[in-house]
Design brief:
The chain is mostly beta strands. Helices cover about 5% and strands about 45% of the residues. It is built from two helices and 18 strands. The strands form five sheets. Strands 4-15-14-13-12 form a five-stranded antiparallel β-sheet. It has a five-stranded antiparallel β-sheet with strand order 5-6-7-8-11. Strands 2-3-18-17 form a four-stranded antiparallel β-sheet, with no helix packed on it. The longest helix is centred in the first third of the chain and has 4 residues. The chain is globular, with a radius of gyration of 19 Å.
Length: about 290
């Protein structure tokens, strides 16, 4: 299942407390658009006394760490030019929440809780043929494919599984620090993007968030929020929790995610921007 935001404005999608659904909502903002996408967590971690960490693991690397970083799901999920960003300390998370942004594909390869990154490899513990890995329960993951569609498609055009996308598709410019918060800067076609990964907290619910500031664009741009082929998505109305039309207002509907039967599971990557699209919300900027 893939959730795709196709809009210019403020967007959000929040998962229910039992972890079975997403609640998307949209509202217009100023001409310089922004978007926020949230994913809710249900977290239960056992406290314990950790063993003393080796010096390369105990070092304070600041709010982010750049490396080739591996996540267990989906298969072969390695961000070769990854930025691991610690969100828990900056946004009041209780479980050391973190994400990896892949600067080659402009996607979030994984989000997790627990520890930060298990630092493996020649640079750290001297181990050969090993990558740093996420250290904790993985909450979500995306396949090794572009995070933004180009000409309506998410198909990876690269000959090899590393290296950047073509500049007319998407281009990484770098990052800024606002205090200790990380601001990612890149372009998608002619559209400039400033993005801050964040957390939202409400009572007992914690959510991963994407806050995007988008420059005006002459065309619609499609971003992949989450792809999980093991789940089936259904759009329900909030009032009666019955199926509704995909054109229903986003603030009045809920995307419910449930396991699929094994014979209906789709491929691990969406090839087109409409593959797995549950709903589409379009609106004009003021």
């Amino acid at each position: 299942m893939s959730l795709v935001s196709r809009s210019r404005g403020l967007a959000s999608a929040k998962r229910s407390e039992d972890g079975t659904g997403f609640l998307p909502c949209f509202e217009t903002t100023t001409a310089q658009a922004a978007a926020i996408i949230t994913f809710t967590l249900s977290i239960g971690l056992n406290a314990g006394t950790p063993d003393p960490a080796p010096p390369w693991q105990a070092m304070d690397y600041g709010p982010f760490l750049t490396a080739s970083i591996e996540a267990p799901h989906p298969a072969t999920n390695i961000a070769y030019k990854g930025i691991a960003i610690n969100l828990g300390e900056n946004f009041g998370g209780d479980h050391n929440e973190a994400v990896i942004f892949d600067t080659d594909l402009l996607r979030y390869s994984a989000g997790w809780t627990g520890d930060f990154v298990a630092l493996k490899g020649v640079v750290f513990d001297g181990e050969h043929w090993a990558y740093p890995q996420i250290a904790g329960p993985q909450i979500f993951g995306n396949p090794s494919a572009p995070g933004w569609a180009h000409n309506g498609r998410f198909t990876d055009p690269r000959e090899f599984s590393y290296g950047p996308l073509a500049k007319d598709w998407a281009h990484w410019n770098g990052l800024y620090l606002h205090g200790t918060k990380v601001v990612l800067a890149y372009t998608v076609g002619e559209m400039s993007v400033l993005e801050t990964p964040a957390l939202e907290r409400n009572r007992n619910t914690t959510a991963f968030a994407r806050i995007l500031n988008l420059s005006p664009s002459a065309i619609d741009n499609t971003v992949q929020l989450l792809l999980d082929p093991q789940l089936r998505a259904e759009l329900l109305g909030l009032e009666k929790l019955d199926p509704v039309d995909p054109a229903s207002p986003a603030t009045k509907c809920l995307v419910v995610l449930t396991p699929q039967a094994p014979d209906t599971v789709t491929s691990a990557a969406a090839s087109t921007s409409d593959a797995g699209l549950v709903g589409r919300w379009d609106f004009d900027e003021p």
